[in-house]
Design brief:
The structure is a homodimer of 337-residue chains.
Chain A: E1 7-8, E2 14-16, E3 19-21, H1 29-35, H2 52-74, E4 79-86, E5 89-96, E6 105-109, H3 120-133, E7 136-140, H4 152-164, E8 173-178, H5 180-194, E9 202-206, H6 218-221, H7 234-241, E10 265-270, H8 276-288, E11 293-298, H9 311-327
Parallel strand pairs in A: 6-7, 6-8, 8-9, 9-10, 10-11
Antiparallel strand pairs in A: 1-2, 4-5, 5-7
Chain lengths: 337, 337
């Protein structure tokens, strides 16, 4: 960059020369290692929403790859997982085996661009989210495209939320999600409010896909710099929307009304994250309405963290636990644990 | 970006093709206008720290340009400014004329890469900071290179701090600074603590230059994307350090010890900010020590904001006022106002 300079035209277009960005020296060795490891997800998604068979093939291939990688790990995690059906929706309930029992619980909505990481992969996420959040975690295996576009996924999450608040005080329940799961978590909070349901105690939105229109600036500035999400996911978003307006608040909760009934929210992203704009814009939207909202941005972190075992990932877990401690009702040891 | 893809090698180097980043559509019209206006500061600084005459010429030219632009505005601002000498250091004291008098006050440390925006330009910043922070603002005209390298500036800021806390309760005093001023504000808090002085009620660090070693990742990723600070300021940092270790906590407060005696801190940056890494790393350093620290990152904002009159700038001012209201002692109307 020091020789070939950037230029800005009078319309505000910034032209940058070809350049090589060295690995950051400001992060842990584990995080640096993660940034030099190719992320094992294909981005060769079909472009035609109607190419159902092609979508299914690609989804199955991605899921099989992740399952092969993650299933061996599942057996070693100090959590047990049960599959239940709640209001007709399959849910994997993860419980940390080592931790003391808590009243509080999490409704966990998995990521995966609204199309992958369902089924048996939710079993893994029930365990990891229970450990990450240090409490029982209800991980919803919500329906997804191509067979089930919007609003199937959100309907399922809401059905499970309705069921959980019959037995858990909302003041003891957090709703959490990463990436597409952050979209569903925020959309659920809006829709629950609109339908007259009580709000959960808190929302945890991890590098959340809150804007399916992809209007944020880091969709441009961090394209290619984020080694996990190298570019936007518009073809997936259109498949998910199934003809619905991408900018509707239930599809892009960033554009929701936060003036009433929205819970305290923690939002996380990384400086190399394609969804950094999603995160900071969501934070500002909540803060403009005077809501309690915390922003945590991690140095050089791509979409989704540094793989889970870097010190930075542990730091994030500590922030999540603290935020839950602050916002969930007084803790008791529970005989139901 | 969609055709020519980025690539990552096994060492973690990311190579990006030449590309044009369009103006963001996710910000206000005023902010968009600011991003298409060339920033009027030369970056042709001398590279040799010993080229004293060349440095002085360039500094004088930059200051004259800004003064010509800003002085007419000063007369229209609803604030009065007096020049005082406090413990031997010139200070411009700005007071909002419209606002009700408050006990609380701000020690304001101006930016300018540790070399520019001193002298009469501090008069302007006394007025603007008094209005931005809605209280009396003591803006220090600290000594600067090439004649006065480190630790002259920090010595001056500390001398003024010592004087102010003779008449203002530290619980009613915030220390604020933007860019290089954020460096001095954080370094002052560390050094005041080390010298046994009471901490101020709060720190406000706006897009702060807390790492003169420039080790953060956004010094690379946002180079050229930030239209204000197009690249790092290492030649200025070396001139300021005058042979001292750039990584010493009084020069790069990011590397300080925050385990005791550091005040609640608000940190701000933008997603296009060259100093975004400075901001998020400082936030994490404080949070790791359990300190109360808030991070506010603004969409597509370059170093230093959107020029002051965009809605986003007003939003930041509202956050600063709220943070001060939270952390400064109970407000009284004061007969000294």
């Amino acid at each position: 960059m020091s020789e070939a300079l950037a230029s800005v035209d009078s319309a505000g277009n910034v032209t940058l020369p070809e350049r090589t960005i060295p690995p950051p020296r400001s992060i842990s060795a584990e995080a640096r290692r993660y940034l030099s490891t190719p992320f094992p997800i294909s981005e060769e998604w079909p472009t035609d929403p109607r190419a159902t068979a092609a979508w299914k093939r690609q989804i199955a291939a991605v899921d099989a790859g992740f399952l092969a990688q993650q299933e061996p790990m599942l057996r070693m995690l100090p959590a047990r997982v049960e599959r239940q059906t709640m209001n007709g929706v399959p849910v994997y309930v993860g419980t940390p085996t080592g931790a003391h029992a808590r009243e509080r619980a999490a409704l966990y909505l998995h990521g995966g661009g609204m199309i992958v990481f369902g089924g048996e992969l939710v079993r893994v996420q029930a365990a990891t989210s229970a450990l990450q959040l240090d409490c029982r975690s209800y991980a919803v295996d919500y329906r997804m495209p191509p067979d089930h576009p919007y609003p199937a996924a959100l309907d399922d999450c809401l059905a499970v939320y309705r069921r959980i608040i019959e037995t858990h005080a909302p003041s003891e329940l957090v709703v959490a999600g990463s990436s597409a799961g952050g979209n569903l978590a925020a959309a659920l909070a809006l829709r629950a409010r609109d339908e007259g349901l009580p709000a959960p105690a808190a929302l945890l939105l991890l590098t959340p896909e809150v804007d399916l229109t992809e209007s944020g600036d880091t969709f441009q500035t961090n394209a290619g710099i984020d080694i996990v999400l190298k570019q936007g996911l518009m073809s997936l978003n259109l498949l998910y929307a199934g003809g619905h307006d991408l900018s509707h608040p239930y599809l892009s909760p960033l554009f929701g009304d936060f003036t009433r009934g929205f819970p305290p929210t923690l939002i996380q992203a990384g400086t190399r994250d394609l969804f950094l704009s999603n995160a900071v814009r969501m934070h500002r939207a909540l803060r403009r309405c005077g809501l309690e909202a915390e922003l945590h941005v991690f140095e050089a972190m791509p979409h989704g963290g540094f793989g889970g075992s870097a010190p930075e990932d542990a730091e994030l877990r500590a922030e999540l636990t603290r935020f839950m401690n602050k916002h969930c009702g007084t803790e008791h040891r529970s005989s139901r644990g």
